[in-house]
Amino acid sequence: MEKTIKIMMIALCAHLLYSNSELLIAAQKMSADGCNVFDTVVLSVFALAYSLISTICVYHVEKYLPVMIFAILDGFAVYLRINVNQEYFLLIVSLFFGFYTFCLISFVFLILRQNRNKKQNEIENENAQQKNISVAQKNISDSQKNILGTSTKAIENKKDFSEEEISVYNNARAKINGSGKKPEKISQVLAEIENENVKQKIIETYSYQQTTLF
Questions:
Q1: Exposure on the CB side of residue 123, measured as CA atoms within 13 A
Q2: Would the CA dihedral through 149, 152, 157, 160 be positive or negative?
Q3: Three-state secondary structure string covering 144-161
Q4: What is the pLDDT of residue 161?
Q5: pTM confidence score
Q6: Residue of 26, 28, 165, 172 with fewest CB within 10 Å of its CB?
Q7: How far is CA 38 from the centre of its chain?
Q8: Cα end-to-end span (Å), the chain
Q9: Is 78 within 8 Å of 19 (Cβ atoms)?
Q10: CA angle (47 as vertex; 8, 101 as ends), nearest 5
């Protein structure tokens, strides 16, 4: 498809080149000095510039407005070339290429603005993606901090007990868990524990049964 479009653009450029060069050469021939080989070459180069810029504008703007304007200009150029001997021919040709130049410059500005907007949109999308990545990284970091905080808290809680208390606590949990965490067994274990820290830890561990115990 891209190759087909390029072929169409080249054909359009060649067609515009023929129309514009013929019109410029016809206008030059009406001058007192006529049209020599140098004039023919120079005017053909100018016509190529007009045609090439027109084709590029049609290709990049991607709107119907430049297509319509350049089609009207091309049709009017054909009309002028056929009616070279009409009155005010040179004036009309001058105005024609003046308007042609105005259109080309306008569409060049339009392409520049279009490219700036496209680049701005790309920058905004890139910034949005980077912001989303930053938020995701922050969430991961917060989760890691929470996990680290929980682990640290568990370690700190463990350090609150002496080795003897830890041993009593582990034995008490083994008895309770071995009985299927029955309320009666928890009450019995608590009654056997003299250390208030261990007793409170047991109550916190099985807090869902506090109403049964007391």
A1: 6
A2: negative
A3: HHHHHHHHHHHHHHHHCC
A4: 66
A5: 0.54
A6: 165
A7: 51
A8: 83
A9: yes
A10: 95
